[in-house]
Structure formats: structure tokens, C-alpha cells
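Figure 2 data, in text form.
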Amino acid sequence: TVSNNMKKTTKILIIFIFCTNYFLFAQNKLRETEKLKTTAKVWGFLKYYHPQVAEGKYEWDKQLFEILPKVKEASTKEQLSIVYVNWINALGNIKKCNTCKKKSNKEYFNKNFNLNWIKNSNIFSNELIKQLKYIIENRHQGNNNYISKDFESGSYKFTNELIHKDFNWKNKNLRLLTLFRYWNKIEYFFPYKYQTDTNWDDVLNRMIPKFLEPSSEVDFHLAMLELVVSIDDSHGYLRTKFTKKYFGNNFIPAGVKIINNKAVVNWFYSDSLSKINDLKIGDAITKINDVPINSIYKVKQKYAQGSNPNVKKAFFTHYSIFNGATDSVKIEYSRNNYLETKTIGRYPLKHFDFKKPEVEDFKIIESNIGYVNLGKIKVNDVPKMMDSLINTKAIIFDIRNYPKGTLYSIAKYISSKKNDFYKKIYPDLNYPGKYIWGKGNQCGENGELKYKGKVVLLVNELTQSHAEFTTMCLQTGDNVTTIGSQTSGADGNIIRFNMVGGYNTAISGLGIFYPDGTETQRKGVKIDIEIKPTIKGIKEGKDEVLEKAIKFIKS
């Protein structure tokens, strides 16, 4: 009996040890997404930090393709760390960097900086962590093969990246390269990474499975689009023939604006086609093919680019909400308080002229108030314009457009002193991920105020980039009020580059802030009096923002 009990106990003990070891092994086994996430980070880190790699001594895309099979074979933390350690050792010795240890007198902006992942002992061995820390302490300095200063724009540009013209979406290595390369560009050189709705690490987690196993070429292109949209930047764009195919190349002949979850017709792309389809200004479309507008947006908003919800919806309505592959679409709409349904035509863009009513460069409107369309005025026109409007009681500068570089010329008339109107951050190319605070330009002129009337600036979601920059400059005038609604929130210059395969995209380059450090990216410029168009106003053909400005001036 004792012998039988001992046998049972031994058997139970063996089973317990086996189960425990199996559980510990299973716990220690790394998931594929986790391994690829780590590889993306190590590959990008070495690209910009390792002296020999940053100097371009290796075919870095090829290095990724060679390391991926080894990463796939590694099952545990220890095995994966050995793969990385051997990889780094093969890149050559790193000399001590004396300048890296010197204390900088620069003022740093560090909200984007994050290298804490290299200390993750749950993934990396102590030897690897030590190796990565050494690279940081003796990182590359000076000219980088993959990024350099762009002296024309005062910013930077990405360089020496292989486009891979023979790109085949079925090639898993090229798909992962697409993700890894873009993710690391944003990780180290996007000034507004800290503002994205989704943590940038979490974006990598979410996107790896979509790049790893897309079900079709269209799905792969949608994954690229979703990745670009994830930076929440109105300068970020991606349009390929496959994304166009997904959304469709036929459009209704009218432009719309989203108000209270309704798509309100506010102008015609083609007067004749809009008339044929009985579309009228102020028609409030509530459903498309029996689906509410807001429901469509919720499903597809991951593909809507833009810095804030207002811009995302504006972009979405133009490119994604009404278009499709068929030549017609069913709509439900409200007109004169009656809800109706009908089918309207959809057409290729070549059938539209997109002409809006002509607006004068500048003029005097009611009550001796000047009006200036900054989208049309050129620098050489400014003296003549200001001479014509110098005796008005007020000037309204409409910046719901894209100005033509007139900000400094106009500021001399409306300011009695030089003013700082922005400060900036730019990347420290010797310490990727860190940004340096820089002083911006001044606008205005010291001396007697030339224009003594009120100045009103009109803005909305179309006020983007240089338009926002222009607004910030003119806001420093002596007697300026800004009226309208949230602007695009994409300030700073544009950095354009190609994704793998040659697909064009862009990001905001420099970080732009008000002199007091107030952010403009995503938030937009400061507004004194907020007003938005209404369905009633659009239907009646009113410019409610302009009317508000006139009323404010008169009061």
C-alpha cells in the first residue's frame, strides 16, 4: 500500500512539474506581433542612432529582410535577444562619442522623446539592454544618410530611401518594411506625435496584423491609409488608385457641409447636373442608401484624414461619403421641412467645373467697411489695397482660403510695433526624438500706426497651414478680432516623402506654437468670437460669419 501511494505521489509530482514547466514555457513564449513590434523599434533605432548605419554603410532595407526569418524562429526572450545582439555586433565597433556627453545649452522640447522601451527586461536580456544604452550614449552625430537639413525650407527632408519600384503587395517583407519605415519616421521626426489620439506604440500594435495578413491589395492600401490617418494631421494624406477604387470614383454634383449630422448642400460642382438632379442649396441630406450620415462616418472615420473632427468630417464628405462605383445613389433629404427620398446621379470628376462665384480681391461694403479676400491678394497688391481702404472704419480680412504670402506686408499697416507671433520646435538630428525650441520671426513695424480702424479676421476649417500662420501674424495687430470656427490645426511647413512603392504622403514638419507656448496643431488658432454656419443660413444664401463680423464692427 505504501509503495502504491509513493507511486501515485511520484506520478502526481511528475505531472505537476510537467504542467508547471509547460505553463512557464508558454508564458515565456513570445507572440508574433510582439516580436515584430520589437523588431520595428530596434531596426528604426539602429537606422538613426547607430553611427555606421546612420552613415549609410549598410543596405538597411536588406538588413531587415535578412533579420526577419531569424526573428520568426526565436521563441523566447533569450532567443530573440541573441538575434538582436548578434545583429548589432555584426555592424561593427562604435567609437566613444565625446560630444554626446556634453551638456547642451539648447532648450529641449521632450514630449515626443521616448526610449524607455530599451529598458524592457520582459523582452530584452540584460546584455542587449546594455548594448542599446551604449549606442544612445555614443550615437551618430552630424550628417545622416536618411535625414538631412533642408536649407530652403529651414526644416528637414528624408533622403536616400529605396522606393522599391518592383513593389509587390504580396511580398510580406515589403509590407512590413512599409509599416516599419513610416512608423519610425513618425516616432523620431513628427513634431506632434505626442498629440495623436492613439498612443503611437499602440498604433504599431494595431497595424502589424493588418500589414502582416491583408486579404487583398485593396485591404493593404487601406491599411496604409489607416496608418497615415493615425497621425491626426491635416497635412497627412494618401490617395492611391486602390483607395479611390474602395471609395468609388463617381461623385454627386454638389458640395456639402456637415451640420448636426446632416450633409447640407452648400455649392454646386456643376450647375447643370445639379439642376438635372433637382438639388438645391440648403437641402439637408440625412441618409445615403437608407444609412444615416453619422453611421457611415463612424464606420469609415478611421480613413478620414485631418487634425480634428471638424476637418476630418469636411475631408470625409468631399472624398468618401457620397462617392461610389455606381452611377446613382439613393438619398433621404429634408427640404422646406419635408422629408423626401429620391435617387440622384453620380458622375466622374471630369464632368464638374467646381466653379464658385467670383469674389473681388478687395472692396468697400456697407457702412464704410473694407473687405479683403486673402486668397486672391498678392504681395504686390497690398500697397494699392491698403491705400484704397485706409479711410474705412474697419477692414475684414477673409482667411477662409489659402493666402499668398501677404502676412508681413499687411502686418506693417495694422501694427505699431514689431511683434513675436510664433515660436517653433525642430528636430535635433544629433539626438533623434528630441526637439529644440527655436524663436520665430517677428511681424509688424515700429512706428505710428498706419491703419487706425478695426481689423477683423474670418476663419473656419478651410483655414489651414499657411492660412493659420498668416492669422497668427495678423492677430498681433493693435486692434484685431478673430471671428469664425475651429481652423484646420495643421500649422508648420509640409514634409513630403514617398512610402515604399512610391506612394506620396506628407506630414507637418516644424512644430508651431504661439509665443506663450499655446499649441495650434489640432486645436487651431485662437478665436475671439465663435460662429458657425446654420442650415437656415446656407439655404438663404447668407454668409453668417461675415454678417457676424459686420454686426460686431457696427456695435
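Caption note: The first strand starts at residue 108 and ends at 109.
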